[in-house]
Structure formats: structure tokens, C-alpha cells
From TrEMBL:
<keyword id="KW-0645">Protease</keyword>
<dbReference type="GO" id="GO:0008237">
    <property type="term" value="F:metallopeptidase activity"/>
</dbReference>
<protein>
    <submittedName>
        <fullName>Matrixin family metalloprotease</fullName>
        <ecNumber>3.4.24.-</ecNumber>
    </submittedName>
</protein>
<keyword id="KW-0378">Hydrolase</keyword>
<dbReference type="Pfam" id="PF00413">
    <property type="entry name" value="Peptidase_M10"/>
</dbReference>
<feature type="domain" description="Peptidase M10 metallopeptidase">
    <location>
        <begin position="151"/>
        <end position="186"/>
    </location>
</feature>
<dbReference type="InterPro" id="IPR001818">
    <property type="entry name" value="Pept_M10_metallopeptidase"/>
</dbReference>
<keyword id="KW-0479">Metal-binding</keyword>
<keyword id="KW-0482">Metalloprotease</keyword>
<keyword id="KW-0862">Zinc</keyword>
<dbReference type="InterPro" id="IPR024079">
    <property type="entry name" value="MetalloPept_cat_dom_sf"/>
</dbReference>
Length: 211
């Protein structure tokens, strides 16, 4: 999901959502002053999912400075309209990000060639008037678990995970075919120069004291 692709040269990046602050477009970001909590549902996931998820989250942390906190396992179904608050499951706070595999029968967006989706939720901090990302979902197509890896860098789904976690923290698509944020499989086994430049900007947002 995201905006139309931007310039094709390597080193480019885009943001999936921007707001106007003053007269300038500014990306909608997570507050860097609190960690991003997440939960996983292991249903349909390979045994090594937790290990590879932590590794890719560490890449995002290194590139953004944002911290992730694992709130453990859950049994939530994949829902593109997941509420931002689920107090009966998680108490009086923003629901943690839900990361899981899902069959395309459960998530219409994963039909056809689409193998992953990320949808962060944003809201306005009433104390500053700025929009921030506060929760979200990341779903990987279950069929990915049976795809042969193209490299020795890890299972095939890690590349999709890297792309979708880029969206989760606010990156959009680029036309540059070697970047992880190219809309189709790029073969990138790590974030590339444009991805990294965009991720650095996404980690430098203001705090959101009112959220
Ligand atoms: Zn994408």
C-alpha cells in the first residue's frame, strides 16, 4: 500500500503519508519518544518466524533509532479494519502492532500477486496538532512460507517483511528497482541507500506528548 512510485534512480525514497506543517510537507511518523509495541500470532507461520522478525526489526531500529518492544503472542485474526484500541486484549493504550502470516482467503488485499501488506494507523496529537503513527498491522501471505529462498540471506519471506516494515514506519514506494521499497520483489537482502535515507528521516520525528 502507499503512494505512486517516485523517481527511478537508486538512493530515492518516498513517504506513504505526509502532512503540511507550516508550508512544508512533513512525513507522518511514529513518536521516537516511546517504543513501538508489537504482538505476533504464530498461526500459519514457520518455526523460524520469531528469529527472522527480530532480525528485520533490528534493521529498522538501526536505520531509524525507533525501538520495538515484543509484547508476546496473540491469537488475533488478520483484519484490515483492526481497531486502534483493543482494551479487552491489551488494556487502556494503543493496541500493539499485529504482525502475522495470513492466507489470502482471510485478507482480500493479498489476492493475486500481492504477498504482503502493511497498514499503519495515524491520529492527531491534540496537544500539537500533528499526525503520528500509533499502531498498525503487517500481514504476510501464508504461501510465502513455501517459496524457495533466492539467496542465502534467509527465507524468501524476510524480503517481503523488510518491505512491509518499511511501510509500517512510513516509507512509500520507489521506482528504483534495487531498493527494498520497490513495489515488486527487488532481491534486496537489506535496506538500500534510498531506503536508509528515508528511514533516517522517519526516525527523527517530534515526540507526541498527547498520544
Ligand atoms: Zn509496498
Amino acid at each position: 500500500m502507499g503512494t505512486p512510485p517516485t523517481p527511478a534512480q537508486a538512493g530515492s525514497y518516498s513517504f506513504s503519508l505526509e502532512q503540511t506543517i507550516g508550508d512544508a510537507p512533513v512525513p507522518v511518523r511514529w513518536s521516537p519518544c516511546r517504543p513501538i509495541h508489537y504482538v505476533t500470532d504464530p498461526t500459519g507461520a514457520p518455526d523460524d518466524f520469531a528469529v527472522h522478525l527480530q532480525a528485520v526489526l533490528a534493521e529498522v531500529s538501526a536505520a531509524t533509532g525507533l525501538r520495538f518492544v515484543n509484547d508476546g503472542l496473540t491469537t488475533e485474526a488478520a483484519d484490515m479494519d483492526r481497531p486502534a484500541f483493543l482494551p479487552e486484549l491489551y488494556g487502556d493504550r494503543w493496541a500493539p502492532v499485529l504482525i502475522r502470516f495470513a492466507p489470502e482467503a482471510d485478507v482480500a488485499y493479498l489476492a493475486g500477486d500481492v504477498v504482503g501488506v502493511a497498514s499503519p494507523t495515524h491520529t492527531i496529537d491534540p496537544t500539537t496538532g500533528r499526525a503520528h503513527l500509533v499502531t498498525g498491522v503487517v500481514y504476510l501471505e501464508t504461501e510465502l512460507t513455501s517459496v524457495e529462498p533466492a539467496s542465502e540471506a534467509g527465507p524468501a519471506y524476510t524480503e517481503v517483511l523488510r518491505h512491509e516494515l518499511g511501510h509500517l514506519v512510513g516509507l512509500g514506494h520507489v521506482d528504483a528497482p534495487t531498493e527494498a521499497m520497490h513495489p515488486s520483489v527487488s532481491g534486496a537482502t537489506a535496506y538500500q541507500s534510498g531506503d536508509l535515507a528515508g528511514l533516517a528521516v522517519l526516525g527523527q520525528g517530534p515526540c507526541a506528548p498527547g498520544l
